[in-house]
Amino acid sequence: MIEGRPIPMSSVSNSVYDVCLQEALVRSQEWVPRWLAGLSQNLRSNEVTAVNAQDKHTYHTARKALESFGDLIAARFIETLAQSLPSHDGGPQGATMQRPMSLDRLSLDDLELMDDDQVHEKVEQGRVLQIVKMAVDEELVAFNSLLCGAQGQAIVRADANPLRPEVIVQTLMRALETLHVDPAIRSSWLHGGAVVLGQEIQQLYRDLSAWLSRQGVQPAGYVVTQTAMTKSVSSRAAGAPRRAPSAPQGEQGLLTLDHLHRLLVGNLDEKDNPATGTGHAGAGAEMVNSLAAEVVTLMLRNITEDVRLLPKVRAMLGSLKPTLLRMARDEPRFFADRQNPARRLLETITERGLAFTSEQDEGFSDYAKLVRQSVKVLQQEGPDLASRLEQQLMRLGQVASPTRTPARGIAVQTLVKVEQRNLLAQRVATEIEARNDFARAPGVVRRFLTGPWSQVVAQARLEASATGLDMPGDAPAMRYMAILPDLLWSSQLALASRNRPRLVKLIPQLLRTLREGLASIDYPQAQAETFFQALMGLHEAAYKAQQPLTESEPSRFEPDEDDAWLRPAEAKDTGFIDDLGVVPTQPAFENTQPLQRDWHDIQQENAGRSRLPLEVGTWVDLWRDEGALRCQLTWASPHGTMFLFNSADGRSVSLTQRGLIHTLESGRLRVVAQHGMVDDALDAVARQAWINSLKA
Which of 5, 9, 503, 580 has the fewest C-beta atoms lying within 10 Å of its C-beta? Predict the structure, then answer.
């Protein structure tokens, strides 16, 4: 136990999960000192067996520094680990932790922004994490299952484990960064302590798994996901490469993370390769050209082995390899420059290629013909490669893009108006709900007013504001709100039955205004008549002084702000999906149906994402009655309530935010590519360079 250092976590907990995390912190006061002792022993052993005087001195210095900082390392390690664990409100207990490192999250853009020390640290983290994961693999499977079970989850989610190896290793790195010691000493600690750290974490998982079992926790299950293929398109995770990156044979030790970083920032010179070079800048230029060629080879290999593209497209891209290698010789960093014509050409070909799932798809033959012609032109020898790239880039722009069709322009304009009206309708509904006489009205009337009628008022107000003139007293927007006192009064038996003459007098004008308003938004006749029958039943009961018909719906009504109303013409112009059974096509005043899944679970699964469920530019397969439709998310409304997809043949499909989430959850919308394929391929190159560094 560490004296004088209270664990910064609440001692009050009501769940097995919370108690388990506290138990982990208590046990850390035992295993962290054991790890430090094992590290010290390893350093001493390495010092004794070292044959090189410099190595012997390095191990000796690292061991002496460990003796001085050991207690501080333990205290900060445990304290930082406690800060990384979730508190009872779901947030971090202390300082906000960075996302745990992972090979899946390293990108070329991230690498370009790092300095040399950060690159070195990334490699050190990767090596330690690799050793730890190998040690704890079997125990981690069991612990993840039990810990997810303690959280009430039926299915294992590895990222729901706040004690996973990535978090612990990153915690250690953060603790060591707070010490003012030489980086070489920290490196010696990490190298000498990685195996012991893996053994201690392995035992921690065993102990915590046994503890959870004694508490009666039932383990969550693992789901084996089979990769479904639709027209040769994998339905795996968004934007994930369909094949693990691999380096060319014989070159796996050449491209390291450090070399790739220095290639990106232009920091490679002759000291990196003592061999005599023959280029205009000597050995440094030779090294740069070799690394650039390897990056291009790896990048193109990842693209041409990605089954999201049709085989014919991949074959044509493979034919560009000599051209791209020549470009790498002249401009070694072209792949990192998003404005370079060679990279833009690759992005254009791959992005347009994602639009097709079959060579029989409309527009594919024209697309393939243009690409084939461009490849043929670029394969020619000559000094004017840069200008030919620009020319072919312009030619490929002739391919019809989902973002350039006239139908899309109309759909965007329509959805902007739809969102504006729906947001205004929500404010109108709030305004109506605030009335003193609203709560006493029957549920069917309340749902009508906060649903269809709020849309009617919103439409009228938008039309009035478009004129730029003050609204007269008889303007529709004024009249549609003016009938509220009569409508609410007449629907209440206790009030209306006391003044039958007033009831008889107001009904004709009330019904005319209601019908006029619903007609202004093209509200479906069948749904309108359903409401009028219910309203007339209330009026008849009040006139005859009888009890109203018993309603089966709950008396309390809360409108769903995610529902959106589209007029029939608007739904047609935007391809609004109303046949998936997840989104109502009109504001409903019938009973609300509950979600099939708890909304809190959906929010948790979307944690860490942007405000939008998908990013604009994402390619998806959308399943409908006629089969899968390949389309691209080309537009999201300013407030993120409406989404527009377009297919290669110009068709538009729109969804509300709730509809989009439901189609994702139900598997009827599957992401094909959330990022550009060139970005994915280059990120895979960065990860391969990291792997090469770990092997070095």
Answer: 5
Spatial CB neighbours of 55, under 8 Å, sequence gap ≥ 6: 46
Backbone angles phi, psi at 62, to 5 degrees: -65, -40
Buried/exposed code over 237-257 (b: 16+ C-beta within 10 A; e: otherwise): ebbbbeeebebeeeeeeebbb
Place of tokens 């039958």: 500
- Helices (DSSP H) in 319-384: which residue ranges? 321-330, 341-353, 364-378
Q: What whole-number distance in Å separates Cα of residue 120 and Cα of residue 126?
A: 10
Which pLDDT score, from 0 to 100, does residue 545 have? 66
Domain locations in the chain as residue ranges: 16-214, 243-305+310-353+364-399, 406-543, 568-675
State both tokens at 373. Answer: 């012609």
Residue type, 280: H
DSSP codes joined into one string, 506-565: HHHHHHHHHHHHHHHTT--HHHHHHHHHHHHHHHHHHHTTPPPPPP-S-S-----TT---
N residues, the chain: 696
The whole-number average pLDDT for the span 148-156 is 88
Give the pLDDT band (50/70/90) at residue 514. very high
**Residue 526 in tokens:** 């069948």
Position with higher pLDDT, 551 vs 366: 366
Give whole-number Cα distances, 677 to 59, 136, 284, 309, in Å.
46, 34, 31, 10
Contacts of 153 (CB under 8 A, 6+ apart): 160, 220
* Dist CA 416 CA 410 (whole Å): 10
Q: Is the pLDDT of residue 6 over 70?
A: no
Is residue 640 within 8 A of residue 626, CB to CB? The reply is no
Of 344 and 235, the one with more pLDDT = 344
Among 615, 567, 607, which Cα is nearest to 587's? Answer: 567
Between the CA of residue 59 and those of 45, 68, 176, 180, 311, what are the distances in Å? 9, 14, 17, 18, 55
User: Mean pLDDT over all residues of the chain?
Assistant: 80
The strands making up 619-624's β-sheet, listed across from edge to edge, are: 652-656, 642-647, 627-636, 619-624, 669-673
Task: Please answer whether residues 622 and 666 qualify as being in contact, where contact means their C-beta atoms are separated by less than 8 angstroms.
Answer: no
Which CATH code for domain 568-675? 2.30.30.140
Helix, strand, or coil here: 65?
helix
